[in-house]
Amino acid sequence: MSATAPERHRASRTDGEQSRERLLHAGLRLFATQGYAKTSTREIAEAAHTNVAAISYYFGDKAGLYRAVFLEPIEAPPQDMSALFNDTCSLKDALPCMMNGLIAPLKHDETARLCIKLHCREMLEPTGLWEEEIANGIKPMHAALVALLCRHFGLQEADDEVHRLAVSIAGLGVHLFVSRDVIEALAPQLSATHDAVDLWGERLVMYAQAMIEADAKRRKKACQLSGGVDIAFRKRKNKQ
Fold this sequence. Notes:
Helix content: over 70%
CATH architecture of the largest domain: Orthogonal Bundle
Order of helices and strands: HHHHHHHHHHH
């Protein structure tokens, strides 16, 4: 790279960011509606009002653009979910952090719809990015939530019930995306505004807390029952 290249990049940074953003939006729309294989770089460039060379410049090739479209947050800024991964964080702090992070993209309606469609296409017509998303995004979040629940329940390691509960809690937020069209057909006002989306966040935290409390009661009851069985067994052994 020449010594003057960084200066050229900085001088045209604003225009460059706009071109890159247009390519991301055009790529999202075309990849989501047509699929990766049926979408050409020329189509994307035309839709973004730029040239094919811009795709090479910013993303390397079509695969690089697809990767960016699939993995990068578009419009919605990345949410700070660091509290969830803090091993001293409480449920009170971690659950709002998680839920708000999950549902924040719903404030960008059309983009959220296209992202859902793109993820569905990736699962049906895999390119390998879905496995990467699971490994680098979903699994770490699940592990962090499982660790949080273990601390809350006082467990040394997670059992199947903890994993089941973690999946169910995350599912509260995921359901809003997967069933977006159904929810809007039933009650469109529930996510019609940013305030409505924020209210979803508050309610999902409340529902998650109720699920956790219910499981805590189940665990306590199971422990009492097993303790009673153990006492009865010891008494029978003593009589023998």
